[in-house]
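tool_call: predict_structure(chain=1)
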Amino acid sequence: MANSLKYAQLIEVTMLRRDQYRQATEWEYGPQPENTDWARLTRDLEQPNWINYAVYYKNHFCAAVSLECVNSKIVRFHVAKQPKTINPFELADLLIRMADWLLRIGFDEIEAVIPFGYRPSRRLAIRTGMTYRGNVQNGERFSITKDEYQRLYHE
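tool_result:
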């Protein structure tokens, strides 16, 4: 992906900056305690198997999408967004375009592990064409394979 991707002149995607990590974390997990180890979080997000993007809607930072390379064939989406800032259908469309790029460059499956009870995230996964694959230790696993993607979006 290029350094900046503009979509429909309303959405722009750039690399997530270090000074945005805290905001993205608080969107995903809520306010963090005073003793949060931000240095550890920074190290985790900057591991070689992670790519982190900032999403701007109408020039306003409103979401973060992190791609975690689980192995050579699977990428996991992590999405954190500010409530009520970006239309969920537009966000889903952006994720579909990201999935298309990832599947074209050689990955076979895109997945998301959604914490139990996170209904908006569950709906977002379904909007992107992902299928519920069962429960894992820390949530519900959704994914879409390259073959499923081709049938859904290219036939």
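agent: The mean pLDDT is 91. Proceeding to next step.
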